[in-house]
Write a structure and sequence with these properties.
Layout lengths: L1 H59 L2 H9 L8 H6 L4 H15 L4 H10 L7 H11 L17 H4 L4 H9 L4 H10 L7 H16 L5 H9 L12 H4 L4 H16 L5 H11 L16 H9 L1 H23 L3 H8 L7 E6 L1 H9 L6 H9 L1 E2 L7 E5 L3 E6 L6 E5 H8 L21 E3 L5 H11 L11
Helix pairs in contact: 2-4, 8-10, 10-13, 11-14, 13-15, 13-16, 14-19, 15-16, 16-17, 16-19
């Protein structure tokens, strides 16, 4: 009995010891995870402050004096601030000086890699970009301050095809994972490189025939402080380089033109792309902004399809909701390919009524309503159809004629004043600004078509969507 008791006691002590060791192991592992999380958070804070620190250093340093020290090959004369700011001054320093400096300051290699990622640009000359990529690619892979967790060579990522290579590697994973991988390497989502990665990721998903709804939802969500598309809050997007935003918008339009995007996401995308953005603006205006011009150059067919869809939505919204004229809607839809832009002006009563029922409108008409403008007085709404040389103004009341103006004549009539009522857009019975006054009556469609044809406006013979 004594032996059995002793064995039982030893067994219990052994179990207690094992349980204690398991608890200690769990506590140690939990502590290591917390430590790793805190270290990663500290690294991210340092990375987020690095661009501002480099900017302050650039303003405080005498760059010509610094370059003189490098030319004299006097490394000992470089202060700690000058050494830390060197990767941020890569443009002024140049390849030869930077190579000499890095040979004597190996701890600066990771900072050069991160700086080149931040400053990556599609406009940089290919040979020069490749040369810098090869130099940065010599960074020691075992450097703990590099934190490069991607199974791709640094010189390839920093080269001209870098965003495409990165996107190809991650196209089977979510866009969130790709952006988080960049963040782990010290690259914030609001850099040009990250923007181009997003654009190339979307294109490669399209090429593979994969649904892009989830990816574009992430882009539109505004999470992780990204603002790759035009936003209602212009200040949030002001830090993102224009070339990266143009690339993302062009790729998003290509996604919109495909069948690999859900209707809900397509509507959200269209609404975001015509928001009041200080750089992009409204693509339906007569003269495109520089940003939209670049988008059109990158993806002409996708842009034209997008613009045509916006115009069709506005046209159908006005003639169905504000005017309730099915024959006019069908008539002007024939000119969809010739219309350059549209503007919907709603009288106060109609605007208020639609505001109360906006939630019940179809998504595309709800977006068209948000783009409509409100007149301050009057009981008649107006719809402006802008062609290459002329402007046609239709009114909601059936008894009103349609007026055809030259662009410059309508501008003269308005004299730079805001439009307050439909009367501001009407030229009366014997107006001096209008080119044609077209009345609705018997066989009005034929008369309108003939009058427009005489002005060089022919109806679009392409099949409608």
């Amino acid at each position: 009995m004594g032996l059995d008791s002793w064995l039982t006691e030893v067994s219990e002590r052994e179990r207690s010891l094992v349980a204690g060791l398991d608890t200690l192991h769990a506590q140690v592992m939990n502590g290591l995870r917390q430590l790793s999380t805190r270290v990663e958070a500290a690294h991210q804070r340092v990375d987020s402050k690095e661009p501002e620190r480099i900017l302050r250093a650039r303003q405080a340093l005498d760059v010509p004096v610094l370059l003189g020290k490098l030319d004299a090959r006097d490394f000992t004369s470089l202060s700690r601030r000058e050494q830390r700011a060197m990767p941020g001054l890569w443009r002024e320093v140049g390849l030869e000086r930077m190579e000499w400096f890095l040979a004597r300051s190996p701890e600066s290699w990771p900072r050069l890699v991160r700086q080149r990622l931040r400053d990556w640009s599609v406009s940089e000359e290919g040979p020069l970009q490749t040369a810098w990529a090869k130099l940065a690619g010599r960074c020691p892979q075992d450097s703990r301050s590099l934190r490069w967790k991607l199974p791709l060579p640094i010189d390839e990522i920093l080269g001209p095809q870098g965003p495409g290579l990165f996107a190809t590697h991650w196209k089977e994973r979510s866009l969130l994972e790709a952006i988080e991988a960049l963040r782990a390497a010290g690259v914030k989502p609001n850099t040009a490189f990250a923007g181009h990665v997003v654009a190339e990721y979307l294109r490669r998903r399209l090429q593979a025939g994969r649904d892009v709804s989830e990816s574009l939802t992430f882009v539109l969500s505004g999470s992780h402080n990204q603002a790759w598309l035009p936003q209602l809050a212009a200040g949030a997007a002001s830090a993102i380089p224009l070339e990266a935003r143009v690339a993302v918008v062009a790729a998003a339009l290509e996604c919109r033109a495909s069948r690999l995007l859900s209707e809900g996401v397509r509507s959200r995308l269209e609404e975001s792309l015509v928001s009041k953005d200080s750089v992009f603006g409204d693509p339906r205006i007569k003269t495109l902004t520089e940003a939209w011009t670049q988008v059109r150059q990158r993806s002409p067919r996708a842009f034209d399809d997008f613009l045509s869809a916006l115009i069709q939505q506005d046209l159908e919204f006005f003639f169905e909701r504000a005017m309730r004229e099915e024959d006019r809607r069908r008539f002007w839809l024939r000119y969809l390919g010739s219309i350059r832009s549209t503007t919907c002006w709603l009288d106060p009563a109609t605007y208020g009524e639609l505001s109360r029922t906006a939630a019940t409108l179809p998504p595309e008409q709800h977006a068209a309503f948000r783009r409509a403008r409100k007149l301050s007085k009057g009981r008649v709404s107006a719809f402006i159809l802008s062609f290459e040389r002329y402007v046609v103004v239709e009114f909601s009341d059936t008894g009103n004629a349609a007026f055809v103006y030259r662009h410059q004549d309508l501008e003269k009539k308005l004299r730079g004043e805001p439009v307050e009522s439909s009367n501001d857009l009407s030229d009366g019975l014997y107006g001096k600004f209008t080119t044609r006054r077209l009345t609705h009556g018997v066989r009005w469609q034929d008369r309108f078509a003939q009058a427009l044809l005489e002005l060089g406006i022919d109806w679009d013979r392409r099949p409608k969507r």
